[in-house]
From TrEMBL:
GO cellular component annotations of the record: mitochondrion
Originating species: Nycticryphes semicollaris
Gene Ontology biological process terms, A to Z: fatty acid beta-oxidation
Sequence similarity: Belongs to the enoyl-CoA hydratase/isomerase family.
InterPro entries hit by this protein: ClpP/crotonase-like_dom_sf, Enoyl-CoA_hyd/isom_CS, Enoyl-CoA_hydra/iso, Enoyl-CoA_hydra_C
The protein's name in its UniProt record: ECHD2 protein
Keyword Transferase: no
GO molecular function: enoyl-CoA hydratase activity
SUPFAM superfamilies, alphabetized: ClpP/crotonase
Keywords of the record: Lyase
Length: 222
């Protein structure tokens, strides 16, 4: 996905009705020794980092349970859409654990420190509407009879992104992600570097030409 220039948006969905991702198999985990658990969690954290660093926009379609590592997967995505009936939570403390695949870092960056601490300390599960009210998800939708309402909304969101200039979208994602980790002056410098890379693109020239000619732009990602 990272190196396929035809990929413009990635949507994460589940093939299991009612479950986005239920997290780690604790029965499997119980059979591991301490070293194996540490190695397993490091690999999981690395996977989430790989997802978070994909250059194109990513959308999690949460149509059911997203618990523990399942919510950490959704948090590694840029955008999240949930069915109102979906259940989400970093439930690790209820099992004697703490989030280990990015949850302690990505949740506070998403909903703020206070709410993140409350959700992690209590291990509470929330539904899609609660998640929307606290900014954990971008959109919440009523579930449909097929059980894929969040996926359908995620597809619609992806289709809003598709017509836009691919390289500009990638640079926008990079500027936001890198800029959020530094002070605003450094962030402005990062934005400037990303903008400079976009200036010589054919898509920028096409966007200007289309505006002058009062027609929709035809972007090619170059």
């Amino acid at each position: 996905l990272r190196f396929d220039e035809k990929v413009r948006v990635v949507v994460f969905k589940s093939e299991v009705k009612g479950v986005f991702c239920a997290g780690a198999d604790l029965k499997e985990r119980a059979k591991m020794d301490d070293a194996e658990v540490e190695h397993f969690v490091k690999r999981l954290r690395s996977l989430m980092d790989e997802i978070a660093s994909l250059p194109v926009p990513t959308i999690a379609a949460i149509d059911g349970y997203a618990l523990g590592g399942g919510l950490e997967l959704a948090l590694a995505c840029d955008l999240r859409v949930a069915a109102s009936s979906a259940k989400m939570g970093l439930i690790e403390t209820t099992r004697g654990l703490l989030p280990g695949a990015g949850g302690t870092q990505r949740l506070p960056r998403c909903v703020g420190i206070g709410l993140a601490k409350e959700l992690i300390f209590t291990g509470r599960q929330i539904d899609g509407q609660e998640a929307f009210s606290m900014g954990l998800v971008n959109h919440t939708v009523p579930q449909n009879s097929d059980g894929n309402a969040a996926y359908q909304r995620a597809l619609a969101l992806a289709k809003e992104i598709l017509p836009q200039a691919p390289f500009a979208v990638r640079m926008g994602k990079l500027a936001i992600n890198r800029g959020m980790e530094v002070d605003i002056a450094s962030g402005m410098a990062i934005e400037g570097m990303c903008y400079a890379q976009n200036i010589p693109t054919r898509d920028r020239q096409e966007g200007m030409a289309a505006f002058r000619e009062k027609r929709p732009p035809q972007f090619i990602g170059k």
